[in-house]
Amino acid sequence: MIEIKEVSKHFSGQRKVINQLNLSIPDGKIVGFLGPNGAGKSTTIKMMTGVLPIDEGTISLDGFDIEKKTLEAKRIFGYVPDRPDLFLRLKGLEYLNFIADIYQVPKEVRQERIERITKQFSIYNSLDDYIQSYSHGMRQKIIVTGVLLHDPSIWILDEPLTGLDPKSAYILKEMMREHANKGKTVFFSSHGLEVVEQLCDEVAIINNGELLFYGTLQDMKETYESDDQSLEQVFLELTSNE
């Protein structure tokens, strides 16, 4: 479970980027995090993962406060950033073993997971190449593979499908559904409204740092008294009125 309580964030000389955000993400759900560019999605995710400090409020992951119990919280989530340009001077296999070492994944377990996941993503034969030689999509795949190695209970994914070929995107979506079906949590941001509509159990819409809607698509239809509007139509109406 992810608990975001009264969270605010501002940067020097600017208005609040996040303004008293409250959001409770239950276990066993895939939750899509939506908003236009500059709405505060990536800032929220970076606070959730400890990349950015929280100015006001608290964020806890499975009961661990990200600022007070940082190490405990970081052991239980996997994070895919919006830009996969990390550790470019390492070879693919070096990077995966580095991540596995950090999370103390046993040798036999990591070998099985590395082989299985990278074969699913069709990058197994490129593991001896340097990450800087990878395409954007391949870099995304190696980062996702690293996230899955220690089997975290919470997945926090910032635009995870960007740059993936259709087969790999399908495989990742299937993995997300399987993870949620095990009673675990998937929280991901996306600009792909059709994907969110097809895949997510619940949707959170943010704009100007404030939560505009959170609930199921059925909740959305009931709230806005419309059975025929798509997520895209409701999203555009909500964010254009801000």
**Shape assignment:** globular
For the largest sheet, list the strands in their spatial order. 6-7-8-3-9-10
Using the CA coordinates, give the radius of gyration.
18 Å
Mean pLDDT: 91
Percent strand = 15-25%
Q: What's the helical proportion of residues?
A: 25-40%
- Largest sheet features: 6 strands, mixed
Uncertain runs with pLDDT below 50, 5 residues or more?
A: none
End-to-end gap: 29 Å
Give the tally of β-strands: 10
Alpha plus pi helix count: 9
Instruction: Decide which structural class fits the backbone.
Output: alpha/beta
Q: What is the string of helix and strand elements?
A: EEEHEEHEHHHEHEHEEHH
Keywords: ATP-binding, Nucleotide-binding, Transport
Organism: Oceanobacillus picturae
Pfam families: ABC_tran
GO molecular function, one term: ATP binding
Question: Can you offer a commentary on this structure?
Answer:
Residues 2-233 form the ABC transporter domain. Pfam families: ABC_tran. One of its GO terms (molecular function) is ATP hydrolysis activity. Keywords: ATP-binding, Nucleotide-binding, Transport. This is ABC-type transporter ATP-binding protein EcsA. It is a single chain. The two termini are 29 Å apart. The chain has helices at residues 41-48, 70-75, 92-102, 107-120, 136-148, 166-181, 193-199, 217-223, 231-240; strands at residues 2-10, 16-25, 30-34, 56-61, 64-65, 77-80, 154-158, 185-189, 202-207, 210-215. A hairpin with a 5-residue loop joins strand 1 (2-10) and strand 2 (16-25). It is an alpha/beta fold. Helix content is 38%, strand content 24%. It is globular and about 55 Å long. It has a domain at 83-151. The mean pLDDT is 91. The protein has nine helices and ten strands. A six-stranded mixed β-sheet has the order 6-7-8-3-9-10, sandwiched between helices.
